[in-house]
Design goal:
Layout: H1 3-19, H2 24-38, H3 44-50, H4 61-73, H5 77-84, H6 90-94, H7 100-111, H8 116-124, H9 136-152, E1 156-157, H10 158-173, E2 178-184, H11 185-189, E3 193-194, E4 197-203, H12 206-216, E5 218-223, E6 226-230, E7 236-242, H13 247-255, H14 258-267, H15 277-283, H16 299-304, E8 319-323, H17 334-343, E9 348-354, H18 366-383, E10 391-399, H19 410-413, E11 418-422, H20 431-443, E12 447-450, H21 468-478, E13 481-485, H22 498-503, E14 508-511, H23 523-532, H24 546-555
Parallel strand pairs: 4-7, 8-9, 9-10, 10-11, 11-12, 12-13, 13-14
Antiparallel strand pairs: 1-3, 2-4, 5-6, 6-7
Helix pairs in contact: 1-2, 1-5, 1-7, 8-9, 13-15, 20-21
Length: about 550
């Protein structure tokens, strides 16, 4: 059982304790243990066998026993008791954005609401307004968020879909009847969310593959050489079967968005059967189009003119900016994070813990900023003798306040190497208000990167509305980079605006926003969707060399 799966059950227990009126301190203990478990580099099962799990923060002997029960039996007694004490649909209500355990408990105990259907009906009939503290606006927000959650339920994030599909692909490749098994469709195009995963199999024996799939998939069905069903994780999957001689044509047809395929077939009504995609594109007079670009955004015309860009890869990244440590809400120390970045081959690392206004994330006080500044200097002295050169930059993720100003006084802001300005509160602004807020932050002389520009959480929270064009124009005018936050729950800036930004000369910074060592690798997802926006190394801030990045910072000193 994966650590994140165990952590999910611990957090669920914390929620159940609060929903049933249990001890809040006990609930917080389960939440702390869940966070600690997610940040472990080793599987919990291994730590249990070595009797070292209790060395992790927030995990004592009793909690380790609960985790052991989960690892070996899938649950534990307290969780089972709590589950039996609440209606089965109440946890679905808790998933509605903006409710939380306290409001969910009130809806349940005072109105008898214990399912999404009951919550939706209560909002539509104005029953929620009868509760103290639940006004008309709150009721409308609840109704909109319920409907939004229903839309989200049919979607999967890219990283989650890939994680569920990868072992399935590996199992397919091990079959004697399978020549190749590859991702296709939205998964191959690296769409940020998708309704299903598509897989293409090259086989001369489709009957054998179909028989295997019947025993592997939940609810399998077959039509026109496509087998559909669900993986164990619940992800819908479509397995396309193709003979080796037409594998390339099938891969092209199942990969591209409809607009891309239509643009190609305008050049040749039938591309013909080809064993590989290179042959297909050559046959219709095009250079090979990378899968990420096959969205019908002018890539076919560019391929015809041999003007497709050389897209960014993870190997092009030389720096790792916007990361957190135990100074704020991170799980590893500044030194641990920096060394982990160096060991991954980066030439520079940016620490950007939260600023003082974000108290929920243990934002740094001015005194803690000064302490961290000295710690960065000591760390740079320690790492200076290494080869190749490596440097830690002292940054901050400064909250953008409601009026667009940054946290801290100018004197303290002057001490940072760079500032990432981000919005974390006040999401209910109008488009004009939110845009003005961001533009003012971009105009502030210390802002060097605008962090996760819309604040969206994929399949969790819509981004606040902004005038992207106006924000991009402001970034271009003031030489402020736009962040493509690579956390798979964000992927914000949306790739559809990346090309518009780079066309205006705005640099894109692909940042992991890492709160733990393992999250440094989130850049994989940021690069994947950045490529969809035609992002090249020259247009990426942290693809600059150490010297070039230092010069970029120096050129913009206030």
């Amino acid at each position: 059982m994966r650590n994140d799966e165990v952590a999910q059950l611990l957090q669920e227990t914390a929620d159940l304790l609060e929903l049933t009126g249990g001890n809040p301190h006990r609930a917080r203990a389960f939440s702390r243990a869940a966070r600690s478990l997610q940040d472990l580099d080793e599987p919990a099962a291994k730590r249990l066998s070595e009797e070292t799990l209790v060395e992790a923060s927030g995990i004592g002997d009793g909690m380790a026993d609960h985790i052991g029960d989960i690892v070996h039996g899938g649950s534990f007694e307290l969780r089972d008791e709590l589950q039996s004490a609440v209606p089965p649909g109440l946890m679905d209500v808790l998933r509605v954005n903006g409710l939380g355990t306290k409001r969910t408990r009130r809806l349940w105990t005072e109105l008898g609401i214990a399912s999404l259907d009951e919550l939706e009906q209560a909002a539509e009939s104005d029953r929620i307004m009868s509760l103290d503290g639940f006004g008309a606006k709150t009721q409308q927000n609840i109704l909109e968020n319920v409907r939004q959650l229903r839309r989200y339920e049919a979607q999967w994030r890219l990283a989650d879909a890939w994680g569920a599909t990868r072992p399935f692909l590996e199992a397919l490749r091990a079959l004697d009847a399978v020549g190749r098994a590859v991702p296709t469709g939205a998964l191959r195009r690296r769409a940020e969310t998708m309704e299903r995963a598509d897989v293409l199999v090259s086989t001369a024996n489709p009957t054998s593959v179909t028989k295997w799939l019947d025993g592997r998939l939940d609810d399998p069905s077959e039509e026109d050489a496509v087998v559909t069903g669900r993986l164990n994780e619940g992800l819908p999957v479509a397995v396309h079967l193709a003979s080796p001689d037409r594998f390339g044509t099938a891969w092209w047809r199942t990969t591209g968005a409809s607009d891309h395929c239509a643009a190609v077939t305008e050049r040749a009504s039938s591309p013909g059967d080809h064993p590989d995609e290179n042959a297909l594109y050559h046959a219709v007079g095009l250079s090979f189009v990378p899968p990420a670009l096959r969205e019908g955004q002018g890539e076919v015309r560019a391929a015809a003119d041999d003007e497709l860009p050389a897209l960014l890869t993870t190997e092009d990244l030389d720096g790792c900016l916007h990361n957190h440590s135990t100074y704020s809400d991170g799980s590893h120390t500044l030194r641990e994070m920096a060394v982990a970045a160096r060991d991954r081959g980066y030439s520079y690392f940016g620490i950007c813990d939260h600023s003082q206004s974000l108290q929920i994330a243990d934002g740094l006080s001015p005194e803690e900023v000064r302490d961290q500044h000295e710690a960065v200097a000591r760390l740079n002295d320690e790492l200076a003798d290494g080869a190749p050169p490596f440097r830690v930059f002292h940054g901050i993720e400064s909250d953008i306040l409601r009026d667009g100003s940054l946290d801290y006084e100018r004197e303290l802001l002057d001490a940072f190497d760079f500032v990432v300005g981000s919005v974390h509160t006040g999401f209910s602004m109008t488009e004009d208000e939110a845009t003005e807020r961001l533009v003012r932050a971009v105009e502030a002389p210390h802002t060097r990167i605008l962090g996760h520009p819309t604040g969206r959480l994929l399949l969790g929270r819509e981004g606040y509305p902004i005038d992207h064009e106006r924000v991009i124009e402001a970034c271009a005018e003031h030489d402020v980079a736009l962040e493509l936050n690579a956390n798979p729950h964000r992927l914000d800036l949306d790739w559809r605006w990346v090309r518009h930004a780079t066309d205006h000369g705005v640099l894109i910074s692909v940042n992991p926003d890492a709160h733990a060592i393992s999250e440094l690798d989130y850049v994989t997802w940021g690069v994947a969707v950045g490529r969809k926006g035609w992002l090249t190394p020259d247009q990426c801030l942290n693809a600059k060399s150490l010297n070039a990045f230092e010069q970029w910072l120096e050129d913009a000193r206030p």
